[in-house]
Amino acid sequence: MKGIKGELGEMKIELQPDAKPIKHHPYHLNPRIKEKVKWDIDWMLAAGIIFPVYESDWISPILIQSKKDTKDIRFVFLL
Question: For the whole prediction, is pTM greater than 0.70?
Answer without folding.
Answer: no
